[in-house]
Queue: 3 jobs
Job 1
Amino acid sequence: MGSYRDARLRLPREDIGLPEDRGCLRLVLAVPLVALYVPAAYTCCLALAMRPDPDSPYDQLREDARFLGGCSVFLCLLGLLITITPLYRRTLTRWWFAAPALIATVAYVRARTV
């Protein structure tokens, strides 16, 4: 009985997430993340490019920059929520957390300091 158990442990186990199959899966899983991070980066760049009048406290560009910064942070957080799901964590590398964290940080600082 012990030998059967040892033989069972030595048999190669088939894994669903084989490393050679992850290349295509990474591309498929990256599509929704890229669809969120590209608009987030664009709105962050727009928020950074807006230069409101420093003398006027009621300048509309100031509110627009805050809104765009908030939209960018929201899109990044939505992408990060998708990225922390088990399927994404197993398949994608940790670098997928770096870009949205950087974009969200820049957008948040811009929205708060306009």
Job 2
Amino acid sequence: MTTLQLPKSKSPPPVADDSLLDIWYQPWVETTNSAVKLQRIWLETVNDALRHELDFISTVAPFYIKLTHCMTGLEGPQTPTTMASCYHRIAGDMSEATYNRMRRVSELSDDFRERIWFEL
């Protein structure tokens, strides 16, 4: 007598803990990498801005020393003409330094945009 054997039904493979971790880990890493890249870009831009400010301060500091010397008479006798010429000379140097500062700051937004688009 033969017995009829039914085909064995295939049960779904057991889900390993590793595969669940892989399913969750991959999207998390992709979003985290993007966030970290954007954070790095932002920090580089802030670093550049602070460096430009320090350059400006180090450029302007000697002008204040010269102005103090002119106004206190340490560079010779004070007359209204010498004080005015000294003041105008220093004001011209200060305006040039301020112009360079503004130019650098305006370039930061363009650099920031370029860095973000490059990463995307």
Job 3
Amino acid sequence: MYMRDQVQSADAFEQFVLLAVAELETADETPAHSYHVTQTMKAHLADIERQPFGGVERQEVIATLGRLADEGLLANEQTESPTGKGRPGYELVGDADDVLEALSEAEEFEPYVETIRSS
């Protein structure tokens, strides 16, 4: 229940980031790097009823991933890039279904939640 309250009280951009991470998690693609989260979000901009924020910029995604990790909604795991550099990868602390359930009632995200559930 605590996580549900945290997810619902997050701002719209943070919720969108959480949905993208939930989608990547349901596809077994976590821990996810900021690039993949950004690309996933951009691919689903049309699935959002109204965009309560501007576009999706990678720097903003990086900052939001870090903030959500600090708040305990995401786990940050160091992973290695193909070139051997350490990069942070993120995954949900809780279950993807919990995030989807928490945001299924948010009108602007309902189509995206349904897209994730049906895949």
